[in-house]
Specification:
The chain is α/β, with parallel strands linked by helices and about 270 residues long. It is built from 10 helices and 7 strands. The protein has a 7-stranded parallel beta sheet, sandwiched between helices. The structure holds NADP nicotinamide-adenine-dinucleotide phosphate (NAP).
Length: about 270
């Protein structure tokens, strides 16, 4: 059993993790339980959610779970209702949908699903949760962006644009809510070994050199919260992005197009589930 330390005092007693079933979200839950927080865990996948919850309980954490679809307004209101019953000091909006493919070959429904889960979801939960966070005068918010948010990202145009929204929203709120004692961090991971990443698995071996583990991402993010507005996760990713940012923008975007077409020779991921 972990005793609450400075992290739990600043961001506890409850953390809400939206999209906690698998991948980086499950790693956040593991790490937050290790830091002595109680957890409100939300996911659309009930079995994965229960696995995450069981691990947190085994660490001695108090855990509430909610199966909800973050693409659905009713689901979002159910999450807000759960949060209103608890003293939530930390919101981690982790869930996302990212589909690889030429923009014109994606259906409007696929594009709107990405917009709903990646943008509307956090927008609604921020509106519902921020007033209580401000009233208590301390807390934190983690919004998941992506390294793909930093410039045009061919074959993931809609996904990357939703992540640019999260990046700018997070940095903006870092300043605004900082005046209320709330730490906001926009997180830009590079490729991370998660079920989501594996399901859009590159069809070739390209693009896997700097792959990070979810636990390392979660630890670095939670260690960084409160110190800066945004974080490119991992030194190798920071170095890679610095190089890309030093390039002519058109060259950098074209180069990413080339890399993506090499990774996805058919112009899309092998078997999109949506
Ligand atoms: N992995 C990477 O390489 C990478 C890189 C850059 C940024 N990121 C960002 O990091 C975050 C986590 O990525 P990840 O790879 O860990 O994602 P993931 O493996 O797909 O996990 C996200 C979790 O959210 C859940 N979720 C998805 N849609 C949902 C919905 N409509 N309602 C409720 N829950 C939902 C997923 O459940 P299901 O499994 O049932 O869908 C899953 O448990 C995302 O915001 C992603 O954009 C990841």
């Amino acid at each position: 059993v972990s005793l609450p330390g400075p992290f739990a005092e600043r961001y506890g007693p409850w953390a809400l993790v939206a999209g906690a079933g698998e991948g980086i979200g499950a790693a956040y839950a593991d790490e937050l339980a290790a830091r002595g927080l109680s957890l409100a865990l939300v996911d659309v996948a009930a079995a994965a959610l229960e696995d995450t919850a069981a691990r947190a309980r085994a660490r001695g954490a108090d855990v509430r779970t909610l199966v909800a679809d973050l693409a659905d307004l009713h689901g979002l209101e159910a999450v807000a209702a759960l949060a209103s019953e608890l003293d939530v000091g930390l919101l981690v909006y982790n869930a996302a949908v990212g589909l690889v493919g030429n923009f014109v070959e994606q259906s409007l429904e696929q594009s709107l699903l990405q917009l709903d889960v990646n943008c509307r979801g956090p927008l609604v939960l921020l509106h519902r949760l921020v007033p209580a966070l401000r009233a208590r005068g301390r807390g934190g918010i983690v919004l998941m962006s992506s390294a793909s948010a930093l410039r045009g990202a061919p074959l993931v145009a809609t996904y990357a644009a939703t992540k640019a929204w999260a990046y700018i929203l997070g940095e903006s709120l870092w300043e605004e809510l900082g005046h209320d004692g709330i730490d906001v961090l926009a997180v830009l991971p590079g490729s991370t070994r998660t079920p989501g990443w594996l399901s859009s698995m590159p069809q070739t071996g390209t693009g896997t050199a700097m792959l990070m583990e979810p636990a390392d991402v979660a630890r670095e993010v939670l260690d960084t919260l409160g110190t800066q507005p945004s974080l490119i996760v991992g030194q190798a990713n920071r170095d890679g992005q610095a190089l890309l940012s030093s390039m002519d923008r058109a060259d950098a975007v074209r180069m990413m197009g080339g890399v993506m077409r090499e990774m996805y020779p058919e112009g899309r991921q092998a078997d999109p589930t949506v």
